[in-house]
Design brief:
By secondary structure, this protein is mainly α. It folds into 2 domains: 38-49 and 200-328, Cytochrome c-like domain (Cytochrome Bc1 Complex, Chain D, domain 2); 59-194, Cytochrome Bc1 Complex, Chain D, domain 2 (Orthogonal Bundle). The chain has 12 helices and 2 strands, in the order H-H-H-H-H-H-H-H-H-E-H-E-H-H. It has helices spanning 2-43, 59-69, 82-85, 134-143, 153-161, 164-173, 183-194, 202-207, 216-228, 262-265, 297-309, 315-325, and strands spanning 244-246, 273-275. A two-stranded antiparallel sheet has the order 1-2. Helix 2 packs across helix 7 (183-194). The longest helix has 42 residues, at 2-43.
Amino acid sequence: MRKHIILFMIFFGLFIRCKQNTSENTKELKEKAVKLQKEALKYFGVIPSKMPGSKNDTPELVSLGRRLFFEKRLSENNTISCNSCHRIDKNLAGVDNLPTSPGTKGKTGTRNSPTVYNAGFHITQFWDGRAKDLVEQAKEPILNSIKMGIPNKKVVVKKISRIRGYRKLFKKVFPKTKRPISYNNIAIAIAAFERTLITTDRFDDFQKGSLDVLTKDELIGLDKFIKIGCVTCHNGPLLGGNSYNKIGLLNVYENNKDFGRFNETKNEIDKFMFKVPSLRNVALTAPYFHDGKIKTLEKAVETITYLQLNKKLNKMDVGYIVKFLMTLSGKNFTLKQEKKTKN
């Protein structure tokens, strides 16, 4: 009996000690979460609920833009729509998950198609910033010989004008316009729809005060993301999308054929400069970099920290950062494909 009592006392003591340690660990984790939340708000902040330019977007305009976003007849051979490269159907994250996207003639582009989600918050559009906003961006692929392949604006307008359903919709949405179906109005409608493509994620929940929404490993990843220096470029609500930087800042990147913004500005200082990509939904948008040459998120983290920060991370640190980046995946990829507008 005495032996049983001694064993009971030992086990009871161990139980109390474990309980105290757990309580201390929980308290320490909470304190860490509070500190990191303050830092997160300083460096990042939450995604706004409305995009710039959406103030006057009507439900009818957005609905028309949604139809046009899925409209394959905006391509020369009726095979490619905006959604073909920036897929929002089947819960995809606004990309086609290809290195570069195929066009109407079987050729592929030279740059990776970035996600359309949250795009309207970016300083400019495209990797090289050649479009100032979503309206300008919507105009470019339709007339691009590799992408959608229609030769000029007049052909686009003529093609859409032949579709009875669109004649009615454009007249309803642009009632005071003499010619409702115009190339500019097509782009305006598509942009209005794209301004609704805003994601929400656990990281925003964390920044809004839900401190227990991130795990211990994810908090460690956030801490490392900040301390290693990733926030130098990936800051603001989108963790990027608000500046340009040279790819291969401290160590040369293997792709030296694409000069980035230089192709637009012809300014020598802009060689190899690209818009810093947003990291929102980054775990869902592989492959990575402007040329789509990096297949995994782990490799992307490892490569970019070496190129830009001259730091070689070990697998454990890479793993922690990736776990944090996965908290940036949106919770609202549930759009249904729009029905085809009838002739």
